[in-house]
Amino acid sequence: MQIKTRLTLLYTSLMAAMLLTFAFIVYFTSSETREDEYFKRLKQQAATKANLLFDTKIEPQVLQLIYKNAPNSLFQEEVAVYDTGFHLLYHDAVEVDKVKETQGMIDSIISRKEIQFYIKDLQVVGFLYAHDGRSYIVTAAAKDDYGLAKLANLRNTVIIAFLFSIIIIYLAGQFLARKSLQPVSSLVNNVKTITATNLDLRVDEGNRKDEIAELAITFNEMLNRLENSFDAQKDFVSNISHELRTPLTAMLAELQLTLEKDRNNAEYREAIAHTIGDAQKLIRLSNSLLDLAKANYDQTEIAFKNIRLDELLLDARFDVLHNQPSSIVNISFDRDIDNDNDVSVYGNEYLLRVAFINLIENGCKFSADHQSIISIAYDGTHIELRFADKGIGISAETLPHIFLPFYRGENKKFADGNGIGLSLTKKIIDLHGGQIAVQSQEQEGTIFTIKLPHL
Ligand code: ADP
């Protein structure tokens, strides 16, 4: 069911319930009042007749005559007077006798002084009447035709007014629901026009104040994030194809050139060495991409365990020296390690080693002395690793971009690379809840500082 319909029905039912309660209260209060007033009137009329009989001493026959000849005698109250011994002293119309008093009824009036009850539509009142120190029993019965007709009229009016109001309330509810959901409908139409090919479109944010505007703003923010991520993916793919094409083109050109004519052994060796170099670049690139993919996994999918960072750094140093025997890697501690926890973190061994190798390799390859100096410091909450080199440094303009994927600084001519290393390193450090910072001075050197929380 549409929200519009649901809102309309809810609104109509609520209003109907309120109207019904109101109508019931009005009807039953009127009904009670009519009943009370009629009983009172009956008693008054009966008392008046008893007065005429006892005080004014009007003959019973005269009273009966007046009763029978009254123009609305059918609706008149029929009065009867008894003494306490249940002897009839007066009756308006014995032949009709609507009440048919019994001894029980007379006894009940004597003990309770007054009783009121119904015989079908007839309202009957019986009460004790005192005259000259003696008690008499007076009964009066009549049907409140006028009051009942008024009540029936009221009931019909209430029913018609209720039905009429419900129709109006339903239509008003429909109008209100449509009006209040109008912005949602236009939002939906707006959103329908946005696809992967026009992610730059945004939905109308209206007055930027109400709940619908809040939804539109949140949606636009989500679109911003999606667009950025789409753009980043597009850039990423074109960067990868570029990075793959460069060494492949170089390999192809080298091999084609070599094949053009007969070469001597030295020339063949040189061509093969170049091709191997390009193939190694491709392997490094594909390894980096694989690592990047691993670092992009959900944290829950990556196996974490307790790792001693000093041992991991020694492993990383070993790997770097294995690949580049000319590198120099120094590791030092700011202070002694008292227990394992001082230099331990909860992390993924493989990814952290990749991050450290990247930083050590960068330090070595961007410095003439091919040296990376690593120092380890720690306190109760964090471990701080500093990777310093005395290399060519990074210019202030380049510095803000070095953590972007595929970004290579203007000093890239100094050493080979693919621009993935630092972005991958940052991702890995983020994944471990740590921070990475860089300080650099051109021609003086660079220091990367990593801060990782303990276990
Ligand atoms: P790559 O080293 O493959 O070029 P990285 O992502 O590791 O890519 O580094 C990005 C850029 O940051 C490098 O191209 C370089 O300009 C700069 N850079 C990183 N580390 C250093 C360093 N230790 N000294 C000088 N420049 C560095």
Automatic annotation (TrEMBL):
User: Which membrane topology term applies here?
Assistant: Multi-pass membrane protein
Report the residue ranges that make up the HAMP domain in this protein: 178-231
- EC numbers: 2.7.13.3
The protein's annotated catalytic reaction(s) are: ATP + protein L-histidine = ADP + protein N-phospho-L-histidine
Its subcellular locations are: Membrane
Indicate where this protein is primarily found.
membrane
From the UniProt annotation, give the residues forming the signal peptide. Answer: none
Instruction: List residues of the Histidine kinase domain.
Output: 239-455
Q: Which InterPro entries match?
A: HAMP_dom, HATPase_C_sf, HATPase_dom, His_kinase_dom, HisK_dim/P_dom, HisK_dim/P_sf, Sig_transdc_His_kin-like_C, TCS_sensor_his_kinase
Any Pfam family: HATPase_c
Q: What keywords tag this UniProt record? A: ATP-binding, Kinase, Membrane, Nucleotide-binding, Phosphoprotein, Transferase, Transmembrane, Transmembrane helix, Two-component regulatory system
Specify the protein name: histidine kinase
